[in-house]
Amino acid sequence: MRLSAILLLTALPFAANAAGSDDSNPPTPTETTTECKEGLVWDEKTKACVAPEDARLDNDTRFKAVRELAYAGQPEAALRVLAAMTEGETDRVLTYKGFAHRKAGRIEEGMAYYNAALTQNPDNLLARSYMGQGLVEMGEMDLARLQRDEIRARGGEATWAFASLDRALRSGQTWSY
C-alpha cells in the first residue's frame, strides 16, 4: 500500500458543507488524568475511577476520556478506552485511533486510521489536521499543505485544526493543542 497515493486521495475535493468536528478544542484535564491510575476513567456518577469497559459509562464519557488521555500523553490508555466504545468504527473513533497510534510512534498505522476516518467523513477537520501533522513529522510537507488547504476549503480556516497544522507547517513542530 502506498501511503502517498492514499493521502492524495483524501485531499481530493468532496462535495460537503460541514465545517468539521466540534471536538477540536483541547480537553480540560479531569480526574481521569489527575486522580485515576493510567487506563481508568473517572465516572462522574459514582465519583470513582472505573475500568473503561464498565457498563455504567456511556460512549460520550468514554470519548471524553479518550481525548483527555491522548492529549495527556497516554496513547495506550486511550486505545484501551477506544476498544471499550460500543459505537463502532465511526469517524471520531477512527480519528482518535489514528492520533493514539501516531503518538505511540506507529505513524503508518495512525495514517491508515486517519484515511479511514476521512473516507467516512471527508469534512472531519480534526482528522485532516492530525494527518497533516503526521505528514509534517514524516517530512512530507507538500502532502501536509494539501491537508491544510482542504481544511481551508471546507470552511475550517478559523478552527484549531487549521491553526495547529499551519503552525506545524511553519515551524516543523507538531502540537497536541
Summarize the structure.
The protein has 177 residues and is mostly helical. Helices cover 57% and strands 3% of the residues.
Provide the fold topology.
Layout: H1 3-11, H2 31-34, E1 41-43, E2 48-50, H3 59-71, H4 75-84, H5 91-103, H6 107-120, H7 125-137, H8 141-153, H9 160-171
Antiparallel strand pairs: 1-2
TPR repeats: 91-124
Protein name: Tetratricopeptide repeat protein
Signal peptide: 1-18
Core attributes:
mainly alpha; Serine Threonine Protein Phosphatase 5, Tetratricopeptide repeat; two-stranded antiparallel sheet; 9 helices; 3% strand; disordered N terminus; Tetratricopeptide repeat protein; TPR_rpt; TPR repeat; TPR-like_helical_dom_sf; signal
Largest sheet: 2 strands, antiparallel
Number of E strands: 2
Number of domains: 1
Which second-level CATH architecture applies? Alpha Horseshoe
> Ends: how far apart?
30 Å
Alpha carbon gyration radius: 16 Å
Work out the helicity level: 55-70%
Shape descriptor reads elongated
Series of secondary-structure elements, N-terminal to C-terminal: HHEEHHHHHHH
Q: Count the helices. How many?
A: 9
Low-confidence regions: 1-22
Strand order of the largest sheet: 1-2
Could you explain the architecture of this structure?
Keywords: Signal, TPR repeat. TPR repeats lie at residues 91-124. The model is unreliable at 1-22 (pLDDT under 50). Helix 3 (59-71) packs parallel to helix 5, helix 7 (125-137) runs antiparallel to helix 8 and helix 8 (141-153) runs antiparallel to helix 9. The chain is elongated. It is mainly alpha-helical and 177 residues long. It has one domain: Alpha Horseshoe (Serine Threonine Protein Phosphatase 5, Tetratricopeptide repeat), CATH 1.25.40.10. A hairpin with a 4-residue loop joins strand 1 and strand 2. Strands 1-2 form a two-stranded antiparallel sheet. The chain has nine helices and two strands; from the N terminus they run ααββααααααα.
